[in-house]
Write a structure and sequence with these properties.
By secondary structure, the chain is an alpha/beta fold. The chain has two domains: 2-204, Metallo-beta-lactamase, Chain A; 216-269, Arc Repressor Mutant, subunit A, CATH 1.10.10. The chain has helices at 45-54, 70-73, 76-83, 96-104, 165-178, 194-215, 222-230, 235-254; strands spanning 2-3, 8-12, 25-29, 35-38, 60-64, 88-90, 109-111, 117-120, 123-129, 138-142, 147-151, 182-185, 258-261, 266-269. It has a seven-stranded mixed beta sheet, covered by helices on one side. Strands 8-9-10-11-12 form a five-stranded mixed beta sheet. Strands 13-14 form a two-stranded antiparallel sheet. The longest helix is centred in the C-terminal third of the chain and has 22 residues, at 194-215. The N and C termini lie far apart (57 Å). The structure holds zinc ion (ZN). Zinc ion binds next to loops.
Length: 271
């Protein structure tokens, strides 16, 4: 546990990997009788053991989830076992995946609406819907500190995996408009230069999008574009590079800047 401010403490998920960096960051917010937990890690026993050493059983008001990837929701049942069945709030999607999640977590999953306020003593959190990394992704704006819990929208370092690039960029612009001072990230370190960090993420994507466009000096397959843009890649990150490149290509296609030939399986710049 590390105390990051008078209101916020970090509880690491104990699940380090190439994708999760040191592991998933989970946060306890509030200093009063009832606290709020953001995310639950992957379900590693050390996570709940650490929480139980610092927070009493009756001290948790609710759990907020940034998005339903396994490394963020995997510890919910462990939290129930210790804290009891507190309500768990997320953006609930009307699909099979979210119905299964609700069943898996004892029908304790409740839906948030965009901009909804969640309060506890000394704490005002606002749900900010930010799809793109995953369709149900929510950031939480902590008004008292002008801070945003970014989930996987913005990592402490490196860049996140995309689901829908177009949505992702709109979500980054949305958080940029909040103009937070601090970013409490879902992975990696807290960032106290929030404006620079958000700009860096936006610029990184814009630059990649330009590189993908520039790579099309001649007709190319997606694989050929990946090779031009990223060079030699470790097999572990190669598939996400291909996926991301496809996302940039789709965005460029929406803007009528590139075309895809179904017959040749190749991309080219639009005429
Ligand atoms: Zn994720």
């Amino acid at each position: 546990m590390s105390r990051l401010s008078s209101l916020v403490s970090l509880y690491p998920g104990f699940n380090p990997s190439i994708f999760t960096l040191e592991g998933t960051n989970t946060y306890i917010i509030g200093t009063g009788q009832k606290k709020i937990l953001i995310d639950t890690g992957e379900g590693i026993p050390a996570w709940i053991e650490n929480l139980s050493r610092n927070i009493a059983r009756n001290e948790l008001q609710c759990i907020l989830i940034t998005h339903s990837h396994p490394d963020h929701i995997g510890g919910i049942n462990d939290a129930f076992n210790y804290f009891g069945r507190v309500p768990v709030y997320k953006r609930v999607m009307d699909n099979e995946e979210d119905r299964e999640i609700n069943e898996k977590f004892q029908n304790q999953i409740y839906s948030l609406s965009d901009n909804e306020i969640i309060r506890t003593e000394g704490v005002t959190l606002q749900a900010v819907f930010t799809p793109g990394h995953k369709n149900d992704h929510v950031c939480y704006f902590l008004q008292e500190e002008n801070a945003v819990f970014t989930g996987d929208l913005i990592m402490g370092r490196g860049s996140t995996i995309l689901d829908v690039y177009y949505d992702y960029m709109n979500s980054l612009y949305r958080v940029q408009n909040i103009a937070p001072r601090i970013l409490y990230t879902g992975h990696g370190e807290t960032n106290i230069f929030a404006a620079e960090k958000i700009t860096e993420n936006i610029e990184h994507r814009n630059q990649r999008e330009r590189q993908v466009f520039n790579a099309l000096d001649s007709q190319k397959t997606t694989e050929e574009i990946v090779a031009t843009v990223y060079g030699q890649l470790d097999e572990k990150v190669r598939s996400s590079a291909i996926f991301n490149t496809n996302q940039y290509l789709q965005a460029l296609k929406i803007k009528n800047l590139v075309e895809y030939s179904e017959s040749e399986l190749k991309w080219k710049r639009a005429e």
